[in-house]
Specification:
Keywords: Oxidoreductase. The protein is an alpha/beta fold. It has eight helices and ten strands.
Length: 311
């Protein structure tokens, strides 16, 4: 009967709604032996309006992607989670140069995201096109990489002040933050809050709606895509430009904090992809056991790198 009604009224399947990443991630890591994780959550949200039109503003880009280092193991499309590629300190790169930034070090959607187009998670080329079109006044001379820390305290007390310092050095007048994994979305949300509280308007472009809204941010552009595609569809410059343009509109027009706008774009595949990510109910017991051992191994690798400065 339900399927008949869906067909008659044109309803989408019940699971064709934003993926519950907080619950999925919590259940997944508990099954691997990790303690229950408490996600960042605030009642109050800072909000800083733009001081002048975007066409006259200098905009900064913040990413959780990592610079490619061939000495750190496999980092290409489809590579398994690679803790060796992680970084633990803020880094910066020239906005005028091209960069090879990858996401093998974080838990993006490896099953459904091809991870073959960095422009889907690092919109520097789209931002340059926006500058050339006069939509944005200028980019800051540097973009900045934000470490993905499960420790909210470290993000708030160490990484956020350092990013603020660098954006102030660059005379940033607005910032766009693009997370990739579930914890990345929390990290960028905490950073956006800190920047906003210190006078820099922000917009987060991401795919994990529940995590960002639970934390509480000033502005959020939500794309209902698999993790790793917060800047638009891969290999689709028109989608990426449209996604950026929508984020810029949110940056300009949000009337108050906690403004979320959902992109109208759809992932070009069956919505059943939403059932897979970290869904412990879909993983056989033998695979859970293997994943538990791999999780412990990657955890030890990450521990050994925490004091290492990124390239």
């Amino acid at each position: 009967m339900s399927m008949e009604i869906d067909a008659v009224l044109g309803f989408a399947p019940d699971h064709d709604s934003p993926v519950p990443y907080m619950k999925r991630t919590r259940d997944y890591y508990q099954a691997l032996g990790h303690a229950p994780y408490r996600w960042a959550h605030y009642a109050e949200v800072p909000f800083q309006p733009l001081r002048k039109p975007l066409a006259q503003s200098r905009v900064a880009l913040i990413t959780t992607a990592a610079p490619y280092d061939p000495s750190r193991g496999e980092q290409g499309p489809g590579a398994a989670y690679n803790a060796s590629a992680k970084f633990y300190q803020v880094y910066s790169g020239a906005s005028a140069a091209d960069h090879d930034l990858r996401i093998s070090h974080i838990a993006y959607d490896r099953k459904h995201s091809p991870a073959t187009d960095p422009n889907a998670w690092f919109p520097l080329p789209a931002l340059r096109r926006a500058v050339a079109a006069g939509r944005i006044g200028a980019l800051t001379p540097r973009f900045h990489g934000a470490p993905t820390n499960r420790s909210q305290r470290h993000t708030v007390e160490a990484d956020a002040p350092e990013l603020l310092r660098r954006l102030q050095e660059d005379a940033a007048e607005a910032a766009i933050l693009v997370p990739n994994c579930p914890v990345c979305h929390q990290t960028c949300s905490l950073l956006a809050r800190h920047l906003e509280a210190h006078g820099i308007p922000t917009v987060v472009m991401g795919c994990a709606k529940d995590i960002v809204e639970h934390c509480g941010v000033p502005r959020f552009l939500f794309s209902d895509f698999p993790l790793g595609n917060g800047a638009g569809l891969p290999h689709d410059a028109a989608s990426q430009d449209a996604t950026l343009e929508l984020a810029l509109r949110v940056l300009e027009m949000a009337p108050a904090p906690r403004t979320t706008v959902q992109s109208p774009q759809r992932w070009p595949a069956d919505p059943d992809w939403k059932l897979d990510y970290s869904n412990i109910e879909r993983i056989p017991p033998a695979e859970i056991a293997r994943l538990r051992q791999e999780f412990l191994r990657q955890k030890e690798i990450a521990k050994s790198l925490r004091t290492q400065t990124p390239a």
